[in-house]
User: Fold these one by one.
Assistant:
Number 1:
Amino acid sequence: MTLSKLQYERERTEFGDEVKTLRKSKRLTGVILAAQTGISQSKLSKIETGALIPSTDDLRKILIILKASQSEGERLVEWARALRTEFVSWRFEHRQGLAAKQLEVGELERQAKRIRVFQTAAIPGLLQVPAYAKCILQLANVTHQLDLENAVAARIRRQQILYETERQFEFVITEGAALSRFCEPHIVIQQLDRIRFLFGLPNIKIGFLSNKSFLPRVPMASFVIHDSRSAVVETLTGEFPIEDQACIATYNEAFDDFASTAVFGVEADPILEEWKHFLSMHTIPSGVSIHESSACS
């Protein structure tokens, strides 16, 4: 059952309190626990206040240092997993500002060596140019946060990870996502040119699904997979973090199916040229209402 916003926030706070209580019962300071686990003190503080739900790996490091009993440890691990897989609305995610959400996504990305992104709505955040990112985040700002510029800057800083050659990135983007009219056509054209530049990076594969292509399955939703150990699925009003291995395997299979019919790298140049020509011939109609959308993280 999906928790209400208040229930979910209460659960997160209670979870953090339990971790903090366990630490204090072992007479360890946050500074010492952070040093012994290799987790930053600021991150540990966020865990103990409920602002951040730890990954299973981070939580197990904490539990080992705190010498938690097997039953206590299993209970906390399952509790954290349930909180991470609970539906989280965008309104809840943005409660600390848009930039804070970008930092949280960036932390998740830094923990991964392989990231796979399937996007049906917009160009993925890791590939966005600043003008395009501003359009997306402005539409996603359903709680009217005041840190839009900081959020755009934080999203662009996340992209530094693309140049870390020990990491692997795979993107599959539908034609609908590539041509989505969130902003003026010249910005979308600039965005497509940016992607063409990234074709040259050896650790990045970017593929496109043309509407002329055969689709092996229905593209139900956008999703991101991190190292086959976690996934995030986007919906209109929020996201579902997933850690169940069987579910993640299903999303990997879906990604492979879509990738099998996508056109990758420089072979997609003719498609991109066709799309750029289409965009150059059109403008956004006046009076068009654009609905709330996800942050396309």
Number 2:
Amino acid sequence: MSNKPFKILSIIGSPHDGNSNTRALVEDFVEELSTAGVTCDHQVMGLGKYKIEPCRGCWACTKGKSCPVKNDDLDVIKKAMIECDMLIIGSPVYTNQVSAQLKMLFDRLFTWCHVFPLLGKYSLSAVTTANDGQKETGDFIEKMLATYGTYSLGTIIGTGAYTAGFFPQRITARKKNQKTARKAAQLIQKDTLPKESKWLKRMFRAMKRKITGVHTINYIVNGQHPDMPNPPKLMVKLINSIRKKKNVPWDDTVKLSKLMEFELRWWKDRNWLKAKSLKELIEAEPVSTFEIKERLLLELANENNTVKNNERA
């Protein structure tokens, strides 16, 4: 571990900010990390203070276009996620799931679910509840952290968190989570990632199948691409067989080839199309012109290009 402070970003789904029991749980954990020897630079983003508009389901982001939803704080949050060393995502249990505020953030990061944008970062999920729903909520956050490519240190839980600012079992929760904090500190200090979680393994397999399918449909429609490897022959045969069996019109096949353009270009430019494991993803060298941050902040890049083009005109 370098001498620089370890940058932790905590995104808290509670609308209560300072009175959030989830925030209290996370802050206690980070204090335990510090006690165990990790010099932490901790930034907390409570979604009660940040404006996130709901996703409109337009699919513009998958086509490399600017998101039509403007005037909210999504890009501020995205920048912080890109720049942190460790991402903590926490939520109170609301009707056996994450809060609406956190769900809106996940939905707006739709394309991120397919490209492992934070591959190799540490992460942690945090859940508070009165007495139920913690497993479902924790599993969902863990799954989302896996889609971003993070290596999770696990889930910390605080029960007996009844209403905002009323968390009588906070000390008990802190003591229970000390062991996780100490293990996390050891890994961070050694600059060693934890083992791949079941969710991370599962999401790699799911995304590999999905992107291979997208790549194959593009190959069927457009032919061999000079900058891409050919898809597996078996996959070409399988998709053509399904198209024939289901009587899929050629026009619909062409439309399918245009879906997820952003994701396919990402996998191509990261040299991931042939990768057979997460280790190969991490070790793959992207093309020389590939800029992760610029690609993930696509909306800002498109807006800036539009302004520049207008100025030239």
Number 3:
Amino acid sequence: MKLAAYAAQHNKGFVLVLLDCEDNCPGTLGPDLLAKAQGVHGQVEIIVALAYRECETWFLQAAESLRGTHGISAGTTAPPNPTSIRDAKGWLSARMAYPYDETTHQLDFVRKFDIAQARANASFDRFCQRIAALLARP
């Protein structure tokens, strides 16, 4: 929360809380987390963004754009409903040369995945909308 304190003191910036929602209801979990965060630092802008199930479903939605990255096979396509997959990390691992590891692979996937494709995922699209609205403020 040091960043939140700095942002509040200098009247700039915001805090982004980005979490996997897992099996929780995002309509309940999001407002609860936001209220707790505002209770700690209410004088700074806080955005709570929840990836439905897990953020790797965002990668599944844009799977075609990840072909060749860390061994993702050339024929990989997005599943019909990525958020219905209970183990997105396992889905990725099954299409890679070696198992998916958040620490090793996530940054490269974020750099490579197609944002337009990923926006077909409702939770990623909401995340993009919140960031765009924040950046559009004067």
